[in-house]
Amino acid sequence: MLFSDIALLDENFEVQTNRWVGTLDGRIAYIGDTAPGPEEAALYGEVYDGDEKLLVPGMYNAHAHAPMTLLRGYAENLPLQAWLNDRVFPFEDKITGEDTYWATMLACAEMLRYGTVSFSDMYYHTRERIQAVAECGMKMNACEGLLAFEPKPYAEYPICRMNEDLIREFHGSADGRILIDYNIHSEYLSNPVVVADIAKLAKEKGLNIHVHVSETKLEHEECKERHEGMTPIRYFESLGVLDVPVTAAHCVWVDDGDIEILAAKGVYVASNPVSNMKLGSGFAPVVRMLERGVNVALGTDGMASNNNHDMYQDLYVLALIQKGANLDPTAVSPASAMRAATRTGALSQGRKDCGHIALGAKADLAVLDASGPSWCPATDMLNNLVFAGHGSDVCLTMADGAVLYREGEWPTIDVERAKAEVEVRTQRIIASL
User: Do 133 and 38 share a structural domain?
Assistant: First the structure.
């Protein structure tokens, strides 16, 4: 595709106007202020009219539980522990692999509708999730959720063999769109023996670890009680977890010492501001993290605690609440927020050639219609993008150069079938509880 005369958000997160961008073989092959020559232009195929449009990097959702689409609206107005133990875990115990496939497919349709091209997903029935993502054309870092209560070696858990099979069969599959991570659900749903074993395996294989960290004050303080005053971050550091690439979801209650460790170890923090507010968990100290050089990415979390996959909503909230929480209107600039949602999210997944608009980068792109009333006047397009735009302004989403959503159409997903399947399956599960 050749985007003509379009505004774009460049790799420095500055808006450039009247640009031409060509995608070829899944990558960005041309960026210029004039059209390429006729022969080169012919290589790109369709010319896309960029009038009153804004071209941005696709969103990278750094923390999701896609099959929890099944639970949208089901577990509400509860604190995290009651939410998990009384509503979520009993429901999840009834979810089948086929349920997971359809819920993931519907989640993918929703993400694509709002400009997301890739997500880091922590859940169960990983084969079915991979099947859905591979079929629809998105990207995913998948990990099989680990709950480990017995203090025995990781090798003695059935999930160990399952993970080895997943890594062998699927890591780097679908032309690199599917990657496999290791998982530790959290400090409170694991034990030191298993955690140390996973850290060692991840280091040997060069793979990422995805983990929940300090989501609630209760979790944070109980960890200190169990482990001689160590916070979850210090606990995981002591067991070698932070010696490999880690995506630490939430980090709402990390202290200054934790933040220093996060920065020193290069940990990627997946902030989930909407979920954290909805569950009453608190506000992550994102400003302090950014000031100390922590890699902050953005996630939606699951649909039982968000309730939608519109990353533009989370983008807006990320930028907005930090200003209020810190009594500082300069906190988290629009550029910093967009970087968290795109480039940093891509790097958290180990996708170094993704998440920004640059020559040679993967063509993971979204087009927003900037002709609506909320975009006028366009005194600053980046400010409009973060504070006045909406996910519903996305009119095209492309991953690896393939158009996966365009103006109400999903060429790779039967959305009506996915909606019907999820509705029926959710009602079946609720009726069985």
Answer: no
Q: Extract the tokens encoding 176.
A: 């690199």
Q: Could you tell me if 139 and 269 lie in one domain?
A: yes
Q: Which amino acid is residue 24, in one-letter code?
A: L
Chain segment 47-100, per-residue pLDDT in tens: 999 999 999 999 999 999 999 999 999 988 887 788 888 999 999 999 999 999
Tokens 């480039």: give the residue. 343
Can you tell me which residue has the tokens 């420095």?
12
C-alpha dist (Å) from residue 148 to 93, 192, 210:
16, 10, 15
Token pair 């979520």 in the structure block, residue: 88
CA dihedral for 66, 71, 73, 78, sign (positive or negative)? negative
Residue environment code for 49-88, b if the CB has 16+ CB neighbours within 10 A, otherwise e: ebeebbbbbbbbbbbbbbbbbbbbebbeebebeebbeebb
> pLDDT class for 375, splitting at 50, 70, 90?
very high
Q: Identify whether 203 is part of a domain.
A: yes
Residue with tokens 């980068």: 361
Element (H, E) at 21: strand 15-24
